Every structure is written in structure tokens, then in C-alpha cells.
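Q: My labmate handed me this sequence with no annotations at all. I'd like to see what the chain might look like in three dimensions before we decide whether it's worth expressing. Could you predict it?
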Amino acid sequence: NGSLTGSYSAVCGTNGYRGTATMTVGTNGWIKGDLYCSMRGYVGDTVLKNAGRINQVSLNPDGEVVSSFGDVTVINTGTITSCNLDCGCAKKGVDSNISPYPAKITVDGDVTVSTAYWESNTGQHYTAVDGQTIILLNGAKIAAGEVPPTNIAAVKVGEQYLTLAEAFKQEGITNIQLVSDCTLGELITLGEGKDITLDLNGHTITCSTKPKEWEKGAYYAFDVNGGKLTVTDNSTAQTGKIIATSDDHNQRMFILQKGDLQLDKGTYQASIACVVLGADNDQTTPYSHLTVGKDATMNIDYYYAAFVSYDKEKHAYGAVIDFNGTSNNGALYINGS
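A: Here is what I predict for the chain of 337 residues:
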């Protein structure tokens, strides 16, 4: 419950240490310098419980000689003025077989987490590390104006916290509810037999699915190809949003090749919100069916709210659109013959 006035300190930082380390800051406690959750050596599970005041917290380890055997957990009921995912220092494991990065970082409580580096490589930002998941709970959030890294856990399935892409890959899943803003970094496909409802729950999905080997052409966030995807927002404030924009205007949100896409609620910000393909041959029933509900809003920055196109032949048989929502600055475009 006293004050710690040194320039920096660490929850776990003794060279050679391997085990669990816990630091508790009481209601009258005040860490005036920088606090690293771990630094140097072999570190195990690291827990920070704060009910007082901390100037700055760095969640990932500091230093080039660290190997992480556990997870990092921050439970905050007090005040953390600044919290960064990483200080920006280079990482090199003491043991080359063990990652210097903890597999899981959990921040629980009212904490704003920044991706910006602050000690080294300033001006740069943390990007997703393979094998690491970041969980933000009960008011913890990425700083305003920063894009969440792609390893933010956006969904809770059972007792597991998963990224959005991981959640869609689970067998037998039918309902997905967001617990955090997130960035989608890979294409999600719903094939035959898939019927999933995605509840935005007041959160924002930022789509960034440009392939590494991309040369030209469109790239998508969601591909409905034989299945059904329903997107809604059951939050009280109705602030759920999906953003799929890029400087080259090739980032698209949905492609509906076959099946059903139902956008019941939410705001959709895109260059083209949805490309709808039809069948090459005449259809007596809907082949691809897009429904935009009255509580859905599309904000289009360049092209169209919906674009009816074709695949091989210049036909789009069986493409059906029921549009009851709002489109700002985006028309309906029908291509083909």
C-alpha cells in the first residue's frame, strides 16, 4: 500500500526464475514508474492485481533473454494510466525452443490497451504474434483510433476465448457473440450445411484480409458458399459495426456465391458491401438470397451496397435481394445479361 518511485520495476524478473509470480497493488498503493509484467530469464504465470495506481504497464516481456512458460493476467479495479502490449524491445528466448512471448495475455477491468511501442522502435506498433492470444474483458479495450491486432480473442466458446476466425472453424457452432472489438485477418467461408448467427453485440470488426501474394483483384472477408450467415446486433446501444475498406478499394465485405446472407442489424462500412453471384442455369428457387433488414445501415465509400455479378456465364439466375435497410452513398448494381 506504499509508493514505489523507481524508474522501472517488474512483476517477474529474476534471471533463472521459473514459476508463478503475483504482485498485488493495494488501494493506497502507487507505482510511479514503469511496470513490466516480466523481464529477462525464465518466467512462468505472471499475475498483476491492481486496486491502486500504476503509471505504465508493459504486458509482453522486456529484454532479449526471456522464455515464457506461462500466461500474463492483469486484474484491474484501480487506475492504470498507460498500458501497452509491448515496449518495443527485441525478443530472444533464453531457450530457443520456448517462445519469449506468453501464449495468453488477459486484461480484466477498465484498462485502455495501446498497440504502440513506447521504449524502443517508437512510432511502430505491436502486430499479432503466432501462438499468442490477447483477451480483453470487462471494460478493457484497445485504444481509440488503433486497429486491434488479429490475435484479439473476440468470442467465448464454452470456456475458451477464440479469435473470430477460430470461432467460425469450430465444429457444430451455430451462434457467435462478440466480446471485444477485433480485426479479421483471413477469409471466413461458410460452406454447405453451415448455418451461423453472428451477434456483433455492440462491437466492431475491422476486416484486413489482403493476401500476402496479392497482385490485383478483389479480396473478401466473408464467403457464403452454400451455407447461411445471419448478422445481427443484440446490444442495447446497437453500435455493432463491420468495416471493410482499403486504399485500393479492393477490400470487400461479403461474397454470396450460393446460399443465404441475412444482415438483420448493424452498420456496414465498405467499398462494396456484398457481391451476389447467381447460377449459370435457370433456377425456380432462390440460388443466392441476400436480405438486408430495416435496422441495417450500409455506408459505402466508393462503389455499391450490393453488386449482382456472374461467375462463368454472363448470367445470375436465382439471385434474390430483399433490401429493407438504409444505404448511404451506395446503389444496387446489376451486371450480366
